[in-house]
Amino acid sequence: MKDSTVRVIRWSLLRLLTLGALTETAWTIYVGVELPRHYVANHWDVAWVGLDAAQVLMLGAATWSAWRRSTTLVIFATSSATLLLLDAWFDVTTARRGDVAQGILLAILVEIPSALVLLWVAHRGLRHTVLMPSSPSSPKRAPTFDNREPFD
Question: How many beta carbons lie within 10 A of that of residue 134, not counting itself?
Fold first, then answer.
């Protein structure tokens, strides 16, 4: 790919990301003003079980990626960390008065530390990723970790 093409793609991406961030900022302000303080949700159980099921799937995928020494570990570890942080946030912010302490304790002792470890795993994985160059004569190979152990 030519340098000029890469530059156009990069600037297009930067514009889209900036537009997305500005749009999300406006939406967040609107929602903050308009949402009611109290709301009874239908399918509350489905929402929580769905979040927990997503965590199980991402942690399982991270485990599989680590076992296979695949660079997809970076994606799945980051996704798992994000879901754990979301879970911590919603555990604390949606708790009833008597359950707030339990939500904070779970967040501080389990969810946030686990998320930080997963982000460390993703960071270490990125530092040890080798992208195999492709040429017209050689078949494309999947990116992999280099020969060093990423978690030494």
Answer: 10
